[in-house]
Amino acid sequence: MKAPPKKIENIYRLDSQERCDYFIRKITDFEMVWGLFNEGWATTISDQKMAIPFWPEESFATLCANDEWAGFTAKAIELNEFLSHWLPGMQSDSRICQIFPTPSEHGFFIPPTALLHAIKEEREQYE
């Protein structure tokens, strides 16, 4: 599903921390996380650590499928799988999460355990 241009414009005005907060709310509500995939998941390097970028919606991920990620396509990850497999695995592999980069900004970098904690806190509000 493609986000309306006005929505994209408004969200891109947010700073990286605000986009991270939006990401947490959105994925908790819709129980889906988006990444970029092409024979493997998109990655980048931050402070000499491998980072994997994630987005709250398919359209935002697709907008970043250019430059170093040209040829990648948006792929969904169910939230339960993200929480039970992805984040613990990333922690074990010493990787970090890159939350909601845009075509012009790097996004918010956060350790998997911190992201897991933030998502669990948000989920508690839904119970």
Automatic annotation (TrEMBL):
Protein known as: DUF2750 domain-containing protein
Lineage of producing organism: Bacteria, Pseudomonadati, Pseudomonadota, Gammaproteobacteria, Enterobacterales
